[in-house]
């Protein structure tokens, strides 16, 4: 992966300031903006993988919102295991509080809270690790059912472990970049959020070229 290209390609695009600014405004709209940002970013990854000449699309189209909805649904499905384990831990905690009392009760409740926190932490990063694979499978034909091909998810990661570790780190870096805008009277996020999304999407598109 060419990190220099991922960092700088935005500045070589036609009307890049306008495109980032418009997408930045859209992205701060509660829920709908986040969904649109997902679809917009996935379009960048698709264009990079196809070696298109224009990589940053014009924002504010129904297609990107629609694709964002599909990817969001996929993500929610992948969070079902987290929900089930969390529910089981809650049931154990409630049962413990019902059966025991005093110090033994407090010990059990604190233990289950600790286990739940550990589970939340681990699953969040596990999800971030497999997220690039989910997006790649979706972009092959923009069908949501492709993202639930769990065997393909496993095999892609198994065959390209180093690549997906790099993408995982890059995704975390993109979150940090996006947060920089908060330090500029919050206005900066209008640029840092779409820029961070474009940065990661470029790397994702590059991996599509070689996988």
UniProtKB/TrEMBL annotation:
Keywords: Membrane, Transmembrane, Transmembrane helix. Pfam families: DUF4013. The chain crosses the membrane at residues 20-41, 76-98, 118-139, 160-178. This is DUF4013 domain-containing protein.
């Amino acid at each position: 992966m060419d990190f220099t290209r991922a960092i700088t390609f935005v500045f070589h695009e036609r009307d890049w300031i306008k495109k980032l600014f418009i997408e930045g405004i859209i992205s701060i709209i509660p829920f709908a903006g986040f969904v649109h940002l997902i679809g917009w970013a996935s379009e960048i990854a698709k264009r990079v993988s196809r070696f298109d000449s224009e990589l940053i699309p014009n924002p504010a189209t129904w297609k990107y919102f629609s694709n964002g909805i599909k990817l969001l649904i996929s993500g929610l499905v992948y969070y079902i295991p987290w929900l089930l384990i969390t529910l089981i831990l809650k049931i154990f905690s409630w049962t413990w509080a019902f059966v025991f009392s005093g110090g033994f009760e407090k010990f059990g409740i604190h233990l289950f809270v600790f286990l739940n926190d550990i589970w939340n932490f681990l699953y969040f990063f596990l999800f971030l690790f497999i997220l690039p694979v989910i997006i790649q499978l979706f972009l092959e034909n923009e069908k949501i059912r492709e993202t639930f091909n769990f065997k393909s998810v496993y095999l892609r990661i198994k065959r390209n472990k180093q690549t997906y570790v790099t993408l995982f780190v890059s995704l975390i870096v993109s979150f940090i970049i996006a947060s920089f805008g908060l330090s500029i009277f919050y206005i900066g996020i209008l640029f840092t959020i779409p820029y961070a999304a474009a940065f990661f999407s470029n790397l994702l598109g590059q991996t599509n070229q070689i996988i």
